[in-house]
UniProtKB/TrEMBL annotation:
It catalyses: L-seryl-[protein] + ATP = O-phospho-L-seryl-[protein] + ADP + H(+); L-threonyl-[protein] + ATP = O-phospho-L-threonyl-[protein] + ADP + H(+). The keyword Nucleotide-binding applies. InterPro entries: ARM-like, ARM-type_fold. GO terms for molecular function: ATP binding; protein serine/threonine kinase activity. SUPFAM superfamilies: ARM repeat (SSF48371). The gene is Stkld1_1. Its EC number is 2.7.11.1. Keywords: ATP-binding, Kinase, Nucleotide-binding, Serine/threonine-protein kinase, Transferase. This is non-specific serine/threonine protein kinase. The lineage of its organism: Eukaryota, Metazoa, Chordata, Craniata, Vertebrata. It comes from the Eukaryota. It is an enzyme of class 2 (transferase).
Length: 313
C-alpha cells in the first residue's frame, strides 16, 4: 500500500523494494512476497530511468522466483507483468551486466506456460533476437535467451511463424559461437529443436543446420540432455526433408551413423537418449536410399542392442 500510494516518487519505490528484499530470508513471508511481483514490476516500469532501482527490483524478483521454483510453486505472471519486463528490456538493452541478469529472470519466468504465453503476446521475441545479436559473445545471455526462445516456440497456439523464422540464423550463430560450451550449446540445440518443430526452416536451411547439430554432438558427447535434444532436433529436420538425412550420412567431418552408435554406447543408462536416437533412426528409414545405407552400416545390430537394453520401454 505504501508503494502503491506514491508510484511517482522514486525514493518510496526504492525503499519499498529494499524492505521487501529484507523479508526474503523469512520463510513465513514467502506467501506474501508472491503477491508482490506486480507491484515490483510496476515500480520498475514507472522508474525505468533508474538503473539502481531496476537492478534491485530484478534481484528481488529473482529471489522470489527462485524460492517459488524450489518449493514447486509455478508463478504464472500475467500480461501486465510481462509488459513491464519487456519495457525494462527495451530501456536498458545496451547494458550488458543488467541484461544478463534480466535474461536469467526471463528464463525463470518462462518456465510457466502461462507466463511464456504472456511474454509471447507482448512481443518479446524480436527483442530477444536483438539481444542475442548484440551480445553473441556473452555465454550467460545466450544460454538464457535460447531457453526463453524454446519456451516461447513450443507453445501450441503459436501465431508467430514469421517472427520465429527470423530466429533461426541467430540461434544457429549462438550454437556456432559456443559449440565448446556445453551449457550454451544444450540451450541452443533445444531452441533449434523447437524451431524445427514449428516448421521455421526453408530448403536451404536443412543441410547446414543438420551439420551444425552434428558438430554440437561431437563437441559435447558426454552431455545426455544435449545429445537427446540434438537428436530430437535432427529427427524433426529429417521428418521435413531427405536432405537432412543425407547430410547426416554424408557429413564431411565423419559418419553421422557412427556418431549415433557412439552416443548410444556412451549413454547406455539413459533411456531418454535411446528414445531420441530411435526416433531419429525411425525418421531416417522413411527414405529408401537412406535405409539401404543404414543397413549396410549394420544399424539393425544397434537396434537389437537397444531392444535388449530397454526391454520395458
Amino acid at each position: 500500500e505504501f508503494m502503491q500510494a506514491s508510484w511517482e516518487i522514486e525514493e518510496v519505490q526504492a525503499k519499498g523494494i529494499q524492505h521487501l528484499a529484507s523479508l526474503v530470508k523469512d520463510k513465513s513471508a514467502f506467501p506474501y512476497l508472491l503477491t508482490c511481483t506486480e507491484v515490483i514490476t510496476h515500480a520498475m516500469k514507472t522508474h525505468t530511468g533508474s538503473l539502481d532501482l531496476q537492478v534491485e527490483g530484478c534481484i528481488l524478483l529473482h529471489e522470489i522466483l527462485s524460492q517459488a521454483l524450489e518449493q514447486g510453486v509455478m508463478m504464472a505472471l500475467d500480461e501486465r507483468v510481462a509488459s513491464c519486463l519487456l519495457h525494462t528490456v527495451r530501456k536498458h538493452s545496451e547494458n550488458e551486466v543488467f541484461i544478463s541478469m534480466l535474461c536469467t529472470l526471463l528464463m525463470m519466468v518462462s518456465a510457466s506456460e502461462v507466463a511464456a504465453e504472456n511474454l509471447r503476446k507482448v512481443g518479446i521475441i524480436p527483442d530477444l533476437l536483438s539481444i542475442l545479436r548484440r551480445f553473441l559473445h556473452n555465454d550467460k545471455i545466450c544460454c538464457s535467451c535460447c531457453a526463453v526462445l524454446w519456451s516461447l516456440a513450443v507453445s501450441e497456439n503459436n501465431a508467430d511463424q514469421a517472427v520465429l523464422a527470423s530466429a533461426l540464423p541467430v540461434t544457429s550463430a549462438v550454437l556456432q559461437e559456443h559449440l565448446q560450451n556445453g551449457v550454451v550449446a544444450e540451450s541452443a540445440c533445444s531452441a533449434l529443436w523447437a524451431l524445427a518443430l514449428q516448421g521455421c526452416l526453408t530448403d536451404s536451411d536443412y543441410e547446414p543446420t543438420a551439420a551444425l547439430l552434428l558438430d554440437a554432438l561431437r563437441m559435447n558427447p558426454e552431455r545426455a540432455v544435449l545429445v537427446r535434444n540434438g537428436c530430437l532436433a535432427l529427427a524433426s529436420l529429417v521428418r521435413l526433408s531427405e536432405t537432412a538425412a543425407l547430410a547426416i550420412l554424408l557429413d564431411p567431418k565423419g559418419s553421422g551413423v557412427e556418431l549415433i552408435k557412439d552416443e548410444y554406447h556412451l549413454h547406455l543408462e539413459e533411456p531418454g537418449v535411446a528414445e531420441a536416437l530411435c526416433l531419429l533412426i525411425n525418421e531416417m528409414v522413411q527414405y529408401d536410399e537412406v535405409m539401404l545405407d543404414l543397413r549396410s552400416q549394420k544399424m539393425e545390430k544397434l537396434l537389437c542392442e537397444m531392444k535388449l537394453q530397454f526391454p520395458f520401454s
